Amino acid sequence: MQDRMKVLYIFVVCVGSVFAKVTPDYFPQCKRSDPQIEKCVLDAIEAMRPQLTSGIPEVNIPALEPFTVPTLKLDRNAPNLRIKATVRNAKAYGGSRFKIEKLKLNLNNRYAGELKILLPKLMILADYDVRGSRLLTLDINGKGRLQGNFTGITVVAKGIGKPVVKDGVEYLQADKVVTRVKISHGQIAVDDLERPVAAVSAATFFNASPGVVLDIVTPLIEETSAAVIKAFVNKVLGAIPLNEVLADKRK
Ligand SMILES: *[C@@H]1O[C@H](CO)[C@@H](O)[C@H](O)[C@H]1NC(C)=O
User: Fold this and answer.
1) Which residues of 148-178 are buried (b: 16+ CB within 10 A; e: fewer)?
2) Which stretches of the chain are DSSP H helices?
3) Which of 44, 48, 61, 123 is deepest in the core (most CB within 10 A)?
């Protein structure tokens, strides 16, 4: 009797898991065959903005307010910028006020998309540890906490996805993501524990001509944001089967 109950229980759980949706009921679905799929996705994102702000743990969607990146390693060697840094506990406030300027999807025979978003303002807090680094002729080494306000941010992200099968279920994963980032203005403040005077003069230099420094660090910001976006997208899409992301299967 006991064993039969156990078998029945396992059967019910297995059948249930095949039919159960992982996404909450308010989670919108768009159809691949929809001729206005971009509009469907844009409406879906707008409808979910409140949930996106605080995150949807059931489907691995982290909160946008604040958007948190626990650790980032930066390593770049360019003529004007040599940097080796670890950034911890980075928090960005203001991300939930994104405006989507453009969305282009190509789901015929492949998964490709382009998204242009505008962020009116981002306030960033992060702990940094910078070694052996230089920006122009400026020594930027140190360890401490940075606070920055950035306005007029445009991000264009292009991505290509591919379906992957995990435990017999098909998911979509981002294969390649590239971004273009433009930041109109920025102001930073630093609280450095090792070299407070040098750090303050570096911050003063930045604040006096943010455009000059932002131009130099833009390739690094683009590389980093592409990696962060790819990880974010794959975390979300890795939790939602493809047939719940797009309601109809490819013909
Ligand atoms: C950034 O903005 C906040 C609030 O708007 C302000 O308190 C802070 O002093 C600003 N920081 C810098 C570095 O300008």
Assistant:
1) bebeebebbbbbebeeeeeeeeebbbbeebb
2) 2-19, 37-54, 196-208, 210-237, 242-245
3) 61
What stretches in the chain show pLDDT beneath 70? 1-2, 4-20, 26, 249-251
- Tokens encoding 133: 């680094």
Tell the residue nearest (CA) to atom 8 of ligand 1. Answer: 149
Residues touching ligand 1 (Cβ under 6 Å) are 123, 147, 149, 187-189
Tens of pLDDT, residues 205-221: 999 999 999 999 999 99
Distance (Å, whole) CA 125 – CA 123: 7
Domains annotated on the chain, with CATH:
26-245 (3.15.10.30)
Q: Ligand 1 pocket check: which of 147, 204, 213 to mutate, most ligand atoms within 8 Å of Cβ?
A: 147
**Residue 38 · residue 30 · CB < 8 Å:** no
For residue 147, which atom of ligand 1 is closest to its CA?
13
For 61-137, strand residue ranges (E) read: 67-78, 81-93, 99-106, 111-135
Query: Rounded to an integer, what is the distance from CA 236 to the centroid of its chain?
Result: 10
Contacts of 1 (CB under 8 A, 6+ apart): none
